[in-house]
């Protein structure tokens, strides 16, 4: 299976692909799990050739400790990808290869989508995501690119990025894959103790009950209820819970017919930051 380390090598290999084949891209930060595997399988089933990128992008980390502790295991990742399809091209560049000596973040106007939730609590995070994803799109020039709904706000930002930068790529959203007890799969779950990994199913169960309550109660009441659930649970520290319009991501004030809503949450467990979301209608 081709492991590509440089932009030059990537470019040469892409030139050898027949124009009649569509190209799929799955951007990741590695430490692959079943959530990533679903994205990769879907890309393989829908494209003639697939590139999986593995790059822990420093410009999207607002917290140095989080970047340092981010799980990395390239040889295991390569085994996982090979088991899906040995023709997949893996692009795993170094930080220098991507940023040279200039680890800098581009500034975008994401029309406010980056000002709430993840954007509010992770300063400049989405400019960092935009900077790397735009570069990956320019290098790979994929027909289709695959992103998980676990990072639903990121998905909205990527769609906005493609619109404002006029990048000709089809963005394919993929549903959230969960562990047996409901916790959304995430590379950072590796940093949780076994006990906490089971207990953290509580986050999704709370979202499910909140969804039921949303049928009869106001957004404010539902939010109050969720906040109280987490106050009672000492093992978790909730950072935010919002019910938001899926298009604008602005927090819901009054329910409107014909609009779609999702609930979004970020919670700390054992110092690990976990996010999740659920469709409310
Ligand atoms: N449980 C999941 N279900 C569906 N897609 C997922 C899931 N986890 C990650 N993805 C998607 O995989 C892609 C790569 O994500 P990334 O490598 O950051 O992994 P991650 O598990 O989200 O890690 P972390 O949240 O700890 O950074 C993103 O598009 C992300 O949304
Ligand atoms: C899209 C991405 C690969 C950009 O670094 C990252 O944010 C991720 O893995 O979700
Ligand atoms: N999957 C989200 C990337 C991040 O947390 O930086």
Automatic annotation (TrEMBL):
ATP binds at residues 29-36, 148-151, 177, 185-188. It comes from the Bacteria. CDD domains: PanC (cd00560). It is an enzyme of class 6 (ligase). Its main location: cytoplasm. The active site is at residue 36. Pfam families: Pantoate_ligase (PF02569). InterPro entries: Cyt_trans-like (IPR004821), Pantoate_ligase (IPR003721), Pantoate_ligase_C (IPR042176), Rossmann-like_a/b/a_fold (IPR014729). Keywords: ATP-binding, Cytoplasm, Ligase, Nucleotide-binding, Pantothenate biosynthesis. Belongs to the pantothenate synthetase family. The reaction proceeds by a bi uni uni bi ping pong mechanism. This is Pantothenate synthetase. It comes from Maribacter litopenaei. The gene is panC.
